[in-house]
Structures are given as structure tokens and as C-alpha cells.
Specification:
Layout lengths: L1 E5 L15 H11 L3 E7 L1 E2 L4 E2 L5 E6 L2 E6 L11 H18 L7 E6 L2 H14 L3 E5 L5 H13 L4 H28 L2 E4 L2 H11 L8 E2 L12 H15 L8 E6 L4 H17 L6 E6 L5 H7 L6 E5 L3 H10 L2 E4 L5 H4 L4 H8 L4 E3 L4 H9 L2 E3 L3 H13 L1 H19 L1 H22 L9
Parallel strand pairs: 1-2, 1-7, 2-6, 7-8, 8-9, 9-10, 11-12, 11-14, 12-13, 14-15, 15-16
Antiparallel strand pairs: 3-4, 5-6
Helix pairs in contact: 1-16, 2-3, 3-5, 4-5, 5-6, 7-10, 8-9, 8-14, 12-15
Length: 445
């Protein structure tokens, strides 16, 4: 089976600090099962904000596995911006042209977002007579309307500028809705990272769930990615940098992720908590790893708090080492509608390492933590401070939550199990399309 995996933003082998996200884990699973894979990706690295190649390029990533990089044209710095929309539009055009000259795939898996990429993949699926699977990871275009509302609330400029931004975002959202509706109705199968995300696609498709619609969580790779001695050395480096010894007095809380607007909005709680908890947990260290378009603003919020340490962009080995010395993982994310309905990569990273999770989200993430007893949900800085103190002063609580976190990961979110099932699902989609004789979007009489 030849599978196309279409996702512009996910990291690819060779990116700085590479670790596989969903597309990478699915590609690895497909190749391991003897299938051929073509990944379509942007020539601009979304996470590191750097060019991967000048013009279109082909990366041979292994036997039966190639990555097609598409020239993104102009660079962008903000995730939601006109520059990103223009870059994405250019990549979509180049994808449509390049793909038409390629051998027919047996299945196309297109991640959503973006609706434009889903629309282009639907057109190619019809052209080739190939089944399309849409894989929903974000609630575009609906989320743009919420971005517009939040921008209005924060707008410091003129009312005219605020109105123009609101109208512009809603026009883009309307156009994206048309694109997604066409793609969802064309697709042979719809996939979500959970039930709410599958329901999002089903709503645009205008139908109930069918036999080729499914849910596959994001998941995270099992086991250590690096040798134990390398992790131990990197952990010793962390201890030296953080000014902590090998004893039990240090209490490290880690965060690793994009420093974006939803983190900035909720980060004041972290600063308040660190300030309040430090007198009761003298060796508290809150280590913040990552970069983003709101990094400077987040750093300013924490400038006067010595317990919060910013590490910048951190490679995969140092992240694994940091999790090995941490006592808890932090999710300081504002309660935006789409984030409330999903479990993030951070969530899976933390529980895979047996870390109790301190989480501001009280939606799906909060319910999952409460149900399985593997974390604490906080509303404000005071509650987060109390949670830190409770975990720091009760080894029994910390160990109990750690066991529950690791057990939840092994039972439900280990990548090997998830992507084994995903590959079997794609094989079934391809067989079903061949046996039915119907083209994509044509479900028969």
C-alpha cells in the first residue's frame, strides 16, 4: 500500500530537536508494516521558524519513505497571521500541482487543519479515485471566530481596527468552512483525536458516524529514546544548571511547549503560585522550555520570580532528562474552547514519564486527571501553590499519582498500540474502497 500523509507543520526527521508527532509516528508504523509512505510537508519549519529548503525538495527518509518539501515562499512569525495564511496558500497550490504528477496512492491521509489542505486533498482524491481520510487535530475554522472575539477584548487600538480584524477573520473562517465541508463530504473516512474532534468533522460532513469513521488519540512513544547513561549525564547537567543537589529537597516542575497567546494568558497564575509556594518549598524550580511568538511577554511576567527558570529551545535528550528529575508536569493553558476539548502532546509526554500533571484546563484534560487520580486541576495561582506544596510535602501522594499517570499512559495512550490500530484501519479503508467500486465521496445508492 502506498500512503500519502499530508500535514504541513509537523516536525520531520532532520529538524532541530526532532521528535515524531502524530504524522511521524503514523509514518513509522506504516513503514514498519511494509507499506510505502510519501509525506507532504512545508519547506518552512513551523515550530523553529526556519527554512528547511530553498524551493521544493525531496528528502529520502528511509526505505519506502520519502518526504516532499513544498516551497512556502515568505516566512511568518505568528501562528495566526496574514503571513501564515499566505504561506499556507502557496504551499497548497504547489501541493496540488506536484501531486498530480505523482503515481496514484492507495490512500490519502490529510490532517486538519488546514481546511485548504483538506480541500486540495479532496480534489486529488477524486482525481485519482483514491480514498481520503481526514484526521482532525484542531477545531478549525471554528476556532478563528473565538480568536476574533478574544482579539476584540484585548484590542488596544482604534475601534475601526478591531472591527476590520474581526470582519477579516470571520471572512476567512467562512471560506474555510466551505472548504472543509467539501473535504468532509468527499472523505471515505473521518478520524478524530477524540470523540469531540470526530464530531466536528461529522458536522461538516452532514452525516452520522459510519463504519469507516474512527477515533485515534495522539499518543506518545513508549520507553526511553536515549541510552540511560546519556540521560543520567544530561540530568546531572540540569541539576548543576538549576543549582540543586542529588537529595530529595529539590522540587522541579517542568513545562515544555510553545510560548503562545494561550500560555501567556494563563501564566500569571504560575508566577503567583511560585511566589506563594517558595517559602514552603525552598528548593522549588519551575523550568520553562520552549520558544514562541509570546516568549518575550511570558518572560516579562516572570521577570521578578527567581523560582521560574527559562531554558529556551531544548533538545529531545535534555527534555527526557528533565522529565526524569521532575516531580510534576505543568499545563498552564488558557481555557479556550478548542484546548478544553483535547489532550495535548504535553499531557502525553508527562504521563508517559509518570509525572503528576498540574493543569489549568478543566475540560477533557481536567476530567481525565480527576477520573484517574493522576494530577491536580487549578483555577488560580493560590490553588496551584497549594497543589505544589501538597505534592512537595507528601511523597505518598506524589508516588500514587505517578503510578496512576504511568498506568493511564500504558493502558490508553502508548503510541505503539494506537498506531498499530491506525495502520490496520487504513488498510481496511483501502480494501473497502477497492471492493466497493465507489469513488471518494460516492457512498453508493
Amino acid at each position: 500500500m502506498l500512503a500519502w500523509l499530508v500535514k504541513l507543520e509537523d516536525p520531520i526527521p532532520g529538524d532541530p530537536n526532532y521528535r515524531p508527532f502524530r504524522t511521524g509516528m503514523l509514518a513509522d508504523a506504516l513503514v514498519a508494516h511494509g507499506h510505502a509512505v510519501v509525506r507532504w510537508a512545508s519547506g518552512f519549519d513551523h515550530y523553529n521558524r526556519r527554512r528547511r529548503a530553498e524551493g521544493d525538495a525531496i528528502v529520502e527518509a528511509g526505505e519506502r519513505f520519502e518526504i516532499r518539501l513544498l516551497d512556502a515562499g515568505r516566512e511568518y512569525r505568528r501562528a495566526v497571521s496574514a503571513a501564515r495564511l499566505l504561506s499556507s496558500a502557496r504551499v497548497v497550490r504547489r501541493y496540488r500541482r506536484a501531486a498530480q504528477r505523482m503515481p496514484r496512492p492507495d490512500v490519502i491521509v490529510c490532517s486538519m487543519p488546514t481546511p485548504a489542505l483538506a480541500w486540495a486533498s479532496a480534489g486529488l482524491a477524486r482525481r485519482f479515485g483514491t480514498p481520503l481520510v481526514l484526521d482532525c487535530r484542531d477545531l478549525w475554522p471554528d476556532v478563528l471566530n473565538e480568536v476574533a472575539r478574544r482579539a476584540d477584548a484585548d484590542e488596544a487600538g482604534s475601534p475601526l481596527a478591531a472591527a476590520a480584524r474581526r470582519v477579516g477573520l470571520r471572512m476567512v473562517a467562512w471560506h474555510m468552512a466551505r472548504q472543509l465541508r467539501f473535504a468532509a463530504r468527499t472523505a471515505a473516512g473521518l478520524v478524530g483525536i477524540n470523540d469531540a474532534f470526530l464530531a466536528h468533522l461529522l458536522r461538516y460532513a452532514g452525516r452520522d458516524q459510519g463504519p469507516l469513521d474512527a477515533v485515534f488519540p495522539l499518543g506518545f512513544p513508549e520507553g526511553r529514546a536515549f541510552a540511560e547513561d546519556a540521560v543520567c549525564k544530561a540530568a546531572a547537567d540540569w541539576r548543576r544548571e538549576l543549582g540543586i543537589g542529588d537529595g530529595d529537597d529539590a522540587f522541579v516542575v517542568c513545562f515544555a511547549g510553545r510560548l503562545n497567546a494561550v500560555v501567556e494568558e494563563a501564566f500569571a497564575h504560575v508566577v503567583q503560585a511560585a511566589r506563594a509556594a517558595r517559602s514552603r518549598v525552598p528548593e522549588l524550580r519551575v523550568v520553562v522550555c520552549g520558544i514562541g511568538d509570546r516568549e518575550d511577554a511570558v518572560r516579562r511576567l516572570a521577570a521578578s520570580e527567581p523560582a521560574i527558570r527559562f531554558a529556551g529551545q531544548v533538545d529531545a535528550l535534555r527534555l527526557e532528562a528533565l522529565r526524569s528529575i521532575a516531580a510534576a508536569g505543568l499545563i498552564p493553558t488558557a481555557r479556550r474552547h478548542d484546548y478544553q476539548q483535547s489532550l495535548s502532546n504535553k499531557f502525553f509526554e508527562y504521563i508517559s514519564s509518570g509525572l503528576p500533571v498540574l493543569c489549568h484546563l478543566d475540560g477533557l484534560a481536567g476530567r481525565t486527571l480527576r477520573e484517574h487520580g493522576c494530577g491536580i486541576v487549578y483555577d488560580d495561582g493560590g490553588q496551584l501553590a497549594d497543589a505544589i506544596v501538597s505534592l512537595a510535602t507528601s511523597s505518598e501522594m506524589r508516588q500514587r499519582m505517578a503510578r496512576a499517570a504511568r498506568g493511564l499512559f500504558e493502558d490508553r495512550f502508548a503510541a505503539g498500540r494506537i498506531y498499530e490500530a491506525y495502520v490496520a484501519y487504513l488498510e481496511r479503508v483501502a480494501r473497502s474502497q477497492r471492493s466497493s467500486g465507489h469513488g471518494p465521496g460516492d457512498r453508493g445508492p
